[in-house]
Every structure is written in structure tokens, then in C-alpha cells.
Task: inverse folding
């Protein structure tokens, strides 16, 4: 490839593109001027107007800045990493969070000179950002698909998207909660705070929410990827009001503070979108601790590619599901994805020619086409009793 003289007014990536013969000098100079008034910078400007080949530009950028070059066709997006970054930043700067490891965020960019995007994402996430170069055309396609997928799974929920005082919620039964504590449970600031905590947990893809009272402080933690992290520390004086609000939402007895209680909350986010929460209260030395398990029905429909499996794990799971008979054991710590893995497998097997039954305590996600049974030892419906019944129901697949 011919090497052209370095133009005096060009530097960095634009100079490299001219030196490598990818764009002409006058084209690069004009593109630098015109791209200043458009979002994205030089690379999107050149590629969108077909002034340069996206692959050649990516190779030049990787060479110029000494940054690894990734092929987006050869890897899947880590949706946990994607959800960690504000989607408005992703859409505005056209960047792609690829992988999240501890406090390191690997960020795909076509133009590494977009320092504003890097600084804003560092500030928003608090993570260290490691750059990789990707091709502009592939970047646009993957960002579009990922934004759509995150939107479908409610990954872009925010406080401004809802009226936090009037979200439609319902409990797990028709019992009317007692009037004790009713006023504090419907206090507008408390309603807004609780709703915001729930929405933020859904947005981040958390599996559980913990409301915990202590002698001198009160804290709220969420479990993400199996790890608990504090997300709020409201005044200790609000602890009883927060618990009362959660009990009202779950149709629990507000007056009962001595015994554990179980309930359920359904939060309707739109006409076609609702999230369930399994609620448990437990009396502690300094008040009632409340834990909510987030049950998102859409999580079972995201497909196995959204589970974050390595290729070897994914192949092993799909091969096991494809076998005509056998048993699959799913094990792991709290919040590691056991439930979503099981339901994803059921969703793959859930076809018209199969009879599927499940024994659960409780059934966490409703799956049309699957015969789900909530075990109830108090009335004699144990796991063993449910399994005996299943064997007389002509089963193809049983999940316990």
C-alpha cells in the first residue's frame, strides 16, 4: 500500500487514514470540519457516507492507538455490562458495553478519540473503562439490537418513565390489610421511594432486594450476579413506614410484627408488561427485614444467548436438553441464575408435542403450556405427592 506524505493539518486517526491510503487528504480535511457538527465524530461520519471502508478504518484506529480490535460477529454482548451503562449514553455516543469483570468495563468503540463518551461513562458507572476497537457498521447493528432487547426486558426503566406515586400494584390475595399503619404506608414520599427502589432493581437486572433495619442505620441492598450491594441508606426513622408500604403492596397483615409473613406483589408497568415480586418478612432485633425476589416472566423468554454462558456451557446445556431422556441438575449460589436457567430450558422444550409438569415452592414465573404445581405441605401436597401424581399424568418432562 502506498504511503502518502503526512498532511500538515491532520493528526491522530485522520492522519493515519490518509497515510494508509484509506481516504484522500482533501476528503479527510473536509470530514474533520463537517463531522464537528454531527454526533459520533469522524468515524461515523466517514462510514455513514461511504467515504471509507469500516474494516479498514477499524484496523487503522487499532494500529494508531494500540487498542485491541474485536470482531463483533465472533462474540456476544454481556447484557449485564450493557445494562450497567445509561442507555441514553449508549444511544448518543454509539458505544457498546461488551463485558463487565469486577470493576472493569470493556467498551467497544469505532472512534477511540471520542473522549467525551469515555469520561461520561466512567462518571456514570464508576468503573474503569478499557477500550476495544470495533467496526462502525457492525457497531451500529449490534447497538440497535441490544437497545431493543434491553427495552423488551425493561432494562431502560428510569424514574422519569413512570409516575412513581401511581404505579399499578396488586397483592397476592384479596385480603384487606388492617388499618394499622395505613397512613404511613400511603405517604407519598414513601410510595415514591419504594417504587423507585423496585424500578431501579429491575433496570439493573437484580434478583433480590433486601430492606434491612439495624440499631443505628437502615439500608437497602440488591443482589446482582450473586453479589449483594448497598443501593440506598434511608433514615432509620423511615424503616417502619417502608415496611408498612411493602406489606400493603403484598396484602400482608400490617399489625403482625412478631411472625414471618409471605406475600406477592404484581407491579404493572404497561398494558403488556408486569413484574412479580415474592415477598418475605422476618422479625429481627431492630425491626422487620423484608426481602423481595424479582420474578420477571420475560427473563425465561430472552433465549439461551442472554444467559451469559460460555460457548462450552451453552453447548452442554443444549445437548442435555436435546437428549430423549435423562436428568439435568442445576446448582449454584443465591442469585446465580438457577431459576432463569431452568425456565429458559423449559421454554426451549415447551412445544405442542410435549407434556411438561413442574413442582415448585412457589411457582416463580408463569409459563403458558406448562402444568405448574405449587406444593403445599400443610394440605398434604408435598413434592413427593406431586411427583406421584405427575407419573400418572403421562409426563414427558418434569421439573422440580
Result:
Amino acid at each position: 500500500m502506498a504511503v502518502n506524505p503526512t498532511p500538515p493539518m491532520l493528526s491522530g486517526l485522520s492522519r493515519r487514514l490518509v497515510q494508509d491510503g484509506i481516504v484522500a487528504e482533501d476528503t479527510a480535511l473536509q470530514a474533520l470540519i463537517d463531522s464537528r457538527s454531527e454526533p459520533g465524530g469522524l468515524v461515523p461520519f466517514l462510514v455513514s457516507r461511504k467515504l471509507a471502508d469500516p474494516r479498514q478504518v477499524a484496523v487503522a484506529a487499532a494500529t494508531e492507538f494500540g487498542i485491541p480490535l474485536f470482531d463483533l460477529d465472533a462474540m456476544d454482548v454481556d447484557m449485564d455490562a450493557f445494562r450497567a451503562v445509561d442507555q441514553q449514553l449508549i444511544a448518543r455516543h454509539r458505544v457498546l458495553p461488551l463485558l463487565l469483570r469486577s470493576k472493569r468495563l470493556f467498551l467497544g468503540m469505532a472512534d477511540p478519540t471520542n473522549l467525551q463518551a469515555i469520561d461520561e461513562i466512567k462518571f456514570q458507572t464508576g468503573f474503569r473503562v478499557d477500550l476495544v476497537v470495533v467496526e462502525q457498521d457492525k457497531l451500529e447493528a449490534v447497538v440497535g439490537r441490544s437497545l431493543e432487547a434491553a427495552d423488551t426486558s425493561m432494562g431502560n426503566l428510569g424514574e422519569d418513565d413512570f409516575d412513581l406515586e401511581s404505579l399499578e400494584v396488586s397483592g397476592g390475595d384479596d385480603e384487606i390489610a388492617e388499618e394499622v399503619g395505613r397512613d404511613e404506608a400511603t405517604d407519598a414520599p414513601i410510595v415514591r421511594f419504594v417504587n423507585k427502589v423496585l424500578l431501579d432493581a429491575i433496570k439493573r437486572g437484580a434478583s433480590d432486594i433486601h430492606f434491612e433495619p439495624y440499631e443505628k442505620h437502615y439500608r437497602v441492598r440488591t443482589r446482582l450476579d450473586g453479589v449483594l450491594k448497598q443501593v440506598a441508606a434511608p433514615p432509620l426513622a423511615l424503616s417502619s413506614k417502608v415496611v408498612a408500604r411493602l406489606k400493603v403492596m403484598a396484602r400482608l397483615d400490617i399489625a403482625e410484627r412478631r411472625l414471618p409473613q409471605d406475600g406477592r406483589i404484581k407491579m404493572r408497568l404497561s398494558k403488556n408488561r408486569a413484574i412479580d415480586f415474592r415477598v418475605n418478612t422476618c422479625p429481627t432485633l431492630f425491626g422487620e427485614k423484608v426481602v423481595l425476589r424479582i420474578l420477571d416472566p420475560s427473563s425465561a423468554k430472552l433465549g439461551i444467548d442472554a444467559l451469559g454462558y460460555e460457548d462450552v456451557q451453552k453447548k452442554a446445556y443444549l445437548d442435555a436438553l436435546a437428549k430423549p431422556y435423562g436428568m439435568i441438575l442445576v446448582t449454584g449460589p443465591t442469585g446465580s441464575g438457577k431459576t432463569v436457567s431452568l425456565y429458559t430450558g423449559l421454554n426451549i422444550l415447551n412445544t405442542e408435542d410435549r407434556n411438561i409438569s413442574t413442582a415448585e415452592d412457589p411457582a416463580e414465573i408463569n409459563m403458558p403450556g406448562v402444568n405448574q404445581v405449587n406444593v403445599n405441605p400443610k394440605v398434604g401436597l408435598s413434592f413427593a405427592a406431586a411427583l406421584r401424581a405427575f407419573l400418572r399424568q403421562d409426563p414427558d418432562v418434569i421439573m422440580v
In short: Confidence is low (pLDDT under 50) at residues 152-162, 173-186. The chain has 14 helices and 13 strands.
